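Justification of resources, computational component.

The compute hours requested in this renewal are based largely on the per-chain cost of generating structure records like the one below. Each record pairs the submitted sequence with a full structure-token output. That output is archived, and it is also reused by downstream analysis tasks.
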Amino acid sequence: MKGAIGCLAVVGVGFVLLFGLLWFVLSNTGDQSDLMKQVEIKVTHSEKEARSGHRSGHEVDYTYRVAGQSFAHQTWISNTGWMPGEALSACVDPDAPERHVLRTEGTETCGDDFVGFTVETATPAE
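The structure output for this chain reads:
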């Protein structure tokens, strides 16, 4: 009987942790429907880099243009979403074009409530 109660306690704690993680991720993404404009990304530098143990990806420097203004940013992209040499685009906020989400899968739809997990903030480039 004690074993069954212990097993139920472990399952219960696991469920609470999983639910909490899911809630945290989804609540921190916010409404992204203002990221309506799709732009092409120009990768200026990419370097292979592993993170969190065995996760493989690339540290990527990139630029993009909106209404004649250039923006630059650097981020890490997992190999499951993008590989060097593949096309890359982003969804940007036309009213605040420094705010953007990379379309690493290529299937994300700009203007949806949720486009991607990380809303990036680029800096104006010269």
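DSSP finds one helix and eight strands in the chain. The two ends are 69 Å apart (CA to CA).
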